[in-house]
Amino acid sequence: MKSPTTVVYAGEAKASLLRVALPKDAVFVSRRADFLVETAKRNVVAFVDCDLFFQIEGELPDVPIIGVMDTAMDALDKSVQWMDAFPWLSHILVTTLLQTPAASEYIAMLVNQLPHAPSAELGEKGVGRVALLAQASKRGLRLERMREFFAKHGLQQRALATINDVAEELLTNALYDAPMEAGYFKSAVQRTEDVDLPSDRACEISYGVEQGSVFVRLRDTFGSLTRERLFDVLNRCNAESVALDESRGGAGLGMWRIFSSASTVNITVIPGKLTDITVTMSTSKGRIAKTLHAVHLYFEPGENGSLDHLIPDSDLAFDQSITLVA
Question: Considering the chain, what percentage of its residues have pLDDT values greater than 70?
């Protein structure tokens, strides 16, 4: 299939960055009327300056829209505000990403995988591991092996602690919160209690390093995360006064910590079947560079969905495969 045509509706500062990162045939417009004409065509992906959302809100084109946001110290706060204010918005790029050498490659991958969130693919130089985990009390062993893996790849202690926190939160969400939200558990299970799921309900954790970044990816089979729930948590944590949420077995702060540590966050949810969260963290000299580049969300509507668009893990360049199923 032919790659989509990219249409850009942005102020000159953002447009100039996109001109470098996008294909030469990208169409740049400066008026709302022209934007609507160009996005009425077939096989189009639109990049829209977040500051111009209010101009297109009343007459949205039926094309994937990627928001482009200015670099800011509060990039996470702003991205949460934008995505919550505009429920149709599923993709945000921060201009910090457009200023990196990998911008063109990243955008090409994103455009070709829309409307879904980008999958975590390792290139030829990437290495990683994958494991299944069904028993909560076993996660300490997996986290220790993960720590050893990243330590061998030159990550410093503070970086290792950050990666551990992200993986721990993703695992506990998958083993405790996801089954409860899906109705698998009759009530919330405290994270101090053990959970032992059947093997066909085991979650899958994968992690690796590639081109100056590390990633942690978690898949569960419950598909119970909702956009509403996600932004309920993020908005509460984004506020000055955070009310802790103990009703679901956790404090409700873990997802905020995950976003705060990430350079990119990709979330795909197929209700009742799959929640797939990939957290990528940029690194420099063994440290985590906590600069948000992008957020991608894909929540498939309805109770049933197809998994055909997901890239099987057998296609990823993992150097080891270790399975831990109680």
Answer: 87
CATH code, 5-113: 3.40.50.2300
Cis before 179? omega within 30: no
| One-letter amino acid for residue 234 of the chain | L
User: Which residues, at least 6 apart from 91, have a Cβ–Cβ distance to it below 8 Å?
Assistant: 64, 65, 66, 67, 110, 114, 294, 295, 296, 297
- What number is the average pLDDT over the span 14-31? 96
Nearest C-alpha neighbor of 290 from the set 253, 261, 254: 261
**Measured distance between the N- and C-terminal CA atoms of the chain, rounded to whole angstroms:** 43
Q: Tell me what percent of the residues of the chain surpass a pLDDT of 90.
A: 69
Model's pTM, two decimal places?
0.88
131 three-state secondary structure: strand
| 223-258: pLDDT as tens digits | 999 999 999 989 988 875 554 444 444 445 788 989
Q: For residues 102 and 295, is the Cβ–Cβ distance under 8 A?
A: no
Residue showing tokens 């045509």: 5
Residues in CB range of 186: below 8 A, 6 or more apart: none
Q: CB 51: neighbour CB atoms within 10 A?
A: 15
Return the ∠ at Cα 296 (arms to 98 and 47), rounded to 5°: 50
Which fold, 127-321? Heat Shock Protein 90 (3.30.565)
201 in helix, strand or coil? helix
Domain boundaries, the chain: 5-113, 127-321
Query: What whole-number distance in Å separates Cα of residue 310 and Cα of residue 192?
Result: 33
CA 5 to chain centre: 24
Express each pLDDT in 172-228 by its tens digit: 999 999 999 999 998 888 888 999 999 999 999 999 998 789 999 999 999 999 999
CA 256/CA 288 separation, integer angstroms: 16
Closest CA to 89 of 269, 262, 302, 296: 296
Q: Please state, in angstroms and rounded to a whole number, the distance separating the CA atoms of residues 261 and 312.
A: 26
